[in-house]
Amino acid sequence: MKSKEFKMPAFGVGPIYVIICLILTSVGIYLHIKGYLYQGELREGKIFFIIIGTILILLGIYLWLQAVIVEKINKSVKEKKLITSGIYSLVRNPVYSAFIFIFTGILLLTANYFLLILPFFFWAFLTILMKNTEEKWLKNEFGKEYEIYLKEVNRVIPWFRRKSK
């Protein structure tokens, strides 16, 4: 029996999450540019950070395109369909993962060790947010089907699907 107690908004908690992470990323870059974080700047090996940062940004764009354009997540939310195929078979929240990867990639481009604390905050914040909002809403809406999906697919980091017992 489905309860009307929880109603998931069309965009979930995405706007809140993305805006907060964008603000933190912007503040971090501002502090870096202004020289407040100069002690964390890498003197040598910046190219490694730049390459990894660029790869993460491209991976984030790919995840976003797969979720929004290919899998048409907005249409599925309106139709109240649970997507578990395509990119959603590798990660439960590819749109949020995309933003984590993009923001982390941007931070890596600064080659500043101090800013590397932010991706851990992004991950922890998303985990807490998802457990207390969207995951509850989706369990309420899709029941056992979603609970099985939870056990098989990672929340944020894309990985091969593991079969539940």
From TrEMBL:
The keyword Transmembrane helix is annotated on this UniProt entry: yes
GO cellular component: endomembrane system
Main location class: membrane
MF annotations from Gene Ontology: transferase activity
Pfam families for the chain: PEMT
Membrane topology classification: Multi-pass membrane protein
Name of the protein this chain belongs to: Isoprenylcysteine carboxyl methyltransferase (ICMT) family protein
Species, as recorded: Peptoniphilus gorbachii
